[in-house]
Write a structure and sequence with these properties.
eight-stranded mixed β-sheet, 37% strand, globular
């Protein structure tokens, strides 16, 4: 992987480890993350520091992949998918001072090989989406999704298992 720094035509890429044949479309904001071979990142996507995207992934437009999100190989992330990384988000501390990086705990999330997440799903932090699992569009995922499971709804519930 090479380290890419680029600011042109709606792309802001800072200190990103990029594999071969990675395609970044317009208005991508990525910094301090890694994107592996043959992955595609759509327009208006943000990938924050410490996040990772595996090989052969497709990240669709308007998705937010925050710090602490790890997406393995062959995954599909639909349009407008939102990940979180903080169980107790606050703008300020009890004394009214603005929070800094030292004032919160990063909670990681893992999307295992071959998983697919439908458009507008929200993925709360601290969970694992299992291998080849499928998250339905608009789902609110609040707990681990087993391998090969299909989940949907708010909160997401198992609908069936794939063979």
């Amino acid at each position: 992987m090479e380290i890419l720094n680029l600011e042109e035509a709606g792309k802001k890429i800072v200190n990103v480890k990029v594999g071969s044949n990675v395609r970044l479309f317009g208005f991508v904001n990525a910094y301090g993350c890694s994107i592996d071979d043959n992955s595609k990142v759509g327009t208006f996507v943000e990938i924050q520091k410490g996040a990772s995207v595996g090989k052969n992934c497709k990240i669709s437009s308007h998705s937010f992949i925050c710090e602490g999100v790890h997406i393995e190989d062959n995954c599909f992330i639909g349009h407008g998918v939102m990940f979180t990384n903080d169980l107790f988000p606050r703008a300020t501390n009890e004394d009214g001072s603005q929070q800094t990086d030292a004032d919160w705990v990063l909670v990681e999330t893992f999307v295992k090989k071959g998983a697919s997440i439908g458009s507008n799903a929200t993925i709360l932090c601290g969970i694992t989406i299992g291998e080849n699992a499928l998250v339905g569009a608009g789902a609110m995922v609040t707990k681990d999704v087993p391998a090969n499971a299909v989940v949907a709804g708010n909160p997401a519930k198992i609908i069936k298992y794939l063979k």
